[in-house]
Amino acid sequence: MNTTLLRRSHAMVLGAALLVMAGCTGTSKPSTFYLLKTLPESEAGVPVQGGVSVAVGPISLPAYLDRLPMAASGDGHVLSVDEFHRWAEPLKDGISRVLAENLAILLKTANVYVHPHRRGVPIDYQVEIAVSRFIADVDGAAAFVAYWSIVGGDGQTVLSRNRSSLAERAASREPGAVVAAQNKVLQDLSREIASEIRKLQQKK
């Protein structure tokens, strides 16, 4: 094959490849992104007497949840990962952000920070959370299991290894409905933590 024919052959192959790539791109399904939301301001509680400052974190997640594509439980031991329905931010960041904002609303204080917070900021309580489950099952029910502790400003643990096991059935199996159920579960956890902080503050 002479040089001219060889160049034409390469050009034809490259052109065909580009057409295939263009066809794949044109028909690819767009991703949908989801964001956890905070409680409405209408749920603001009574300010804690004397005020209170709280740091949220560190928060740990199991590796199977530490991803942007949303995961769901399948049959048996199967984990379903949906590349087209994704978290808009790392899930750990989303949980930290929402819990911090929820606690600020429930405790009616502006002094709530996400770990790691700036050094020198006085903290009354630090909430450390180890999430072991935050996923929907095959029926669309959102399940959440976490172990959390509260550390006082002096570095001493004042509430150790509290276990929260929460669940909320989604209105449907659609990802948006599942996220709404997961959001509700985080609201319930926020109320549990806020209640314990109020009790601790009242004992002072």
Can you walk me through this structure?
With 204 residues, the protein is of the alpha/beta class. The protein has 3 helices and 8 strands; from the N terminus they run H-E-E-E-E-H-E-E-E-E-H. It has helices at residues 3-27, 91-106, 175-202; strands at residues 32-34, 54-60, 69-73, 79-87, 112-114, 125-136, 141-152, 157-169. Helix 2 (91-106) crosses helix 3 (175-202). The protein is elongated.
The name CATH uses for the topology of the largest domain is Rossmann fold
Tell me the strand order in the biggest sheet: 5-2-6-7-8
* Overall number of domains: 2
CATH class of the largest domain: Alpha Beta
Total count of strands: 8
Mean pLDDT: 84
Rounded Rg: 24 Å
Report the sheet with the most strands, covering strand number, pairing sense and barrel closure.
Answer: 5 strands, mixed
Overall geometric form? elongated
- Low-confidence stretches at least 5 residues in length (pLDDT < 50)? 1-25
CATH superfamily label of the largest domain: ABC-type transport auxiliary lipoprotein component
CATH architecture of the largest domain: 3-Layer(aba) Sandwich
Report the β-strand fraction as a percent range. Answer: 25-35%
The total count of helices amounts to 3
List SSEs in N-to-C order: HEEEEHEEEEH
**Helix share of residues?**
25-40%
The N- to C-terminal Cα distance equals 91 Å
The chain-level structural class is alpha/beta
Short description:
The protein has 204 residues and is of the alpha/beta class. The protein contains three helices and eight strands, in the order αββββαββββα.
